[in-house]
UniProtKB/TrEMBL annotation:
Pfam families cross-referenced by the UniProt entry: Aminotran_5
Source organism of the structure: Bdellovibrio svalbardensis
Catalysis: reaction(s): (sulfur carrier)-H + L-cysteine = (sulfur carrier)-SH + L-alanine
Protein name: Cysteine desulfurase
PROSITE patterns named in the record: AA_TRANSFER_CLASS_5
Enzyme class: transferase
Function comment: Catalyzes the removal of elemental sulfur and selenium atoms from L-cysteine, L-cystine, L-selenocysteine, and L-selenocystine to produce L-alanine.
EC number per UniProt: 2.8.1.7
Extent of the signal sequence: none
Alphabetical keyword list: Pyridoxal phosphate, Transferase
Length: 409
């Protein structure tokens, strides 16, 4: 472990945000499930792009236009490789996971869901993977139903199977719960959904920073994620879709770039994926995501996974030893996320005390209100870990929670 700790101490040094103090204390940033900090290589790449490569893409008849287009399309290629897609034509650039799910609902959903059909999600979904389906269902006279979870935070597989019927047209689930950390078996759930003829959408927002994904191996039809949870920039994300499906789908938004020919009478649309990318894109988002994937690849998922699991284990053990502390979500297969409450204390009060100690966590419903209803609590405190965290962060967390307990109970 000690060579691993030395290695990750160097990784930590790549994150300028961690050199600052907060409320006079060293910053322990334990909110990576909300957004990850950005390494210097990503910040430098975006600065370089704005300094020397700024130009619009896909239309410049000049040198910088070509440089920017090349950088943008090279990011698409990089993402295709990162996800194991068959072709970069299957990669659509969007604003993030939220826009990605909305895009799928309003294009694929629009042509494939009819009155009386069902869209199956799970009780652990983020609102971004609930509300767009409800909006579609309302438009179409269809229904959104959710598979339940077990008390340990795992998906209730029997309930999932029971709710899969020939009415199910779309199954959309998270690869990893942002609140509980529970990982779902993407390949198994996809296979079960395909067995009833449904198409599969995976919310990859939390998984992409934790583990390698291969969309061809999983065989999902769509996969979405946000760059900002993967050491990349805000406001940028990806929809992967199987090309054969993308080719059947109508455009998402109308405007420049997504067209083949426009007359006042009629417009024909561009090829996939450009058909889904109207207007000037978030070029530095793509460029920054490229640098973020490079950053991950230089560390390697084997190391990332082993290190994050070690942090999760140690933090879970130490938090569990605190009296009156309840952890939500104890699935065997989970990401580096711990949700907890101090019995009798409000999660926001705990969060505020932790903040005063320099420990950044999230306190609230984590955009998972149906899950909170299932757990019977209005909110939780959530600590989430990433490659730049260390044992000192865990000790700071534990010390601050003990202090919160003394102050609040
Ligand atoms: N799904 C999950 C599981 C998430 O954790 C998040 C972000 N908290 C989202 C969807 C939404 O992502 P974004 O806000 O980047 O669109």
């Amino acid at each position: 472990m000690s060579s691993m700790n030395d290695f990750f101490a160097k990784v930590r040094g790549e994150f300028p945000a961690l050199t600052q103090k907060v409320h006079g204390k060293n910053l322990s940033y334990l909110d990576s499930a909300a957004t990850s900090l950005k390494p210097k290589s990503v910040i430098d790449r975006i600065t370089h792009f704005y300094s020397y490569e700024t130009s619009n893409v896909h239309r410049g008849a000049h040198y910088l236009g070509d440089v920017a287009t090349q950088a943008f399309e090279s990011a698409r290629h990089k993402v295709a490789g990162f996800l194991g897609a068959a072709s970069s034509d299957e990669i659509i650039f969007v604003r993030g996971t939220t826009e990605g799910v909305n895009l799928i609902a309003q294009t694929f959903g629009l042509i494939s869901v009819k009155e009386g059909d069902e869209i199956l999600i799970t009780e652990m979904e983020h609102h971004a993977n609930i509300v767009p389906w409800q909006m579609l269902a309302e438009e179409k006279g269809a229904k959104v139903i959710a598979a339940g979870i077990l008390d340990n935070g795992e998906l209730d597989l029997e309930d999932f199977k029971r709710k899969l019927t020939n009415k199910t047209k779309i199954v959309s689930f998270t690869a990893c719960s942002n609140t509980l950390g529970t990982n779902n078996d993407m390949k198994l759930l996809t296979k079960l959904a395909h067995d009833v003829g449904a198409k599969v959408v995976i919310d990859g927002a939390q998984i992409v920073s934790q583990a390698p994904v291969n969309v061809q191996d999983i065989d999902c039809d769509f996969f979405v994620f946000s760059a900002h949870k993967l050491f990349g920039p805000f406001g940028f994300g990806v929809v992967y879709g199987k090309k054969a499906l993308l080719e059947t789908m109508p455009p998402y938004q109308g405007g420049g770039s997504m067209i083949a020919k426009v007359t006042i009478a009629k417009t024909t649309y561009n090829d996939v994926p450009f058909r889904f990318e109207a207007g000037t894109p978030h070029v530095e988002g793509a460029v920054g995501l490229h640098a973020a994937i490079d950053f991950i690849e230089t560390i390697g998922f084997d190391k990332i996974h082993a290190y994050e699991m070690e942090l999760l284990k140690v933090a879970t053990e130490k938090l569990s030893a605190i009296p009156d502390l309840k952890i939500f979500g104890t699935a065997a297969n989970k990401g580096p996320i711990i949700s907890f409450n101090l019995k009798g204390a409000h999660h926001s009060d705990v969060g505020q005390i932790l903040d005063q100690e320099g420990v950044a966590v999230r306190a609230g419903h984590h955009c998972t209100q149906p899950l909170m209803a299932r757990l019977g609590v209005p909110g939780t405190v959530r600590a989430s870990f990433s490659v730049y965290n260390n044992y000192d962060d865990i000790d700071a967390l534990v010390k601050a929670v003990v202090k919160a307990r003394e102050m609040l109970l």
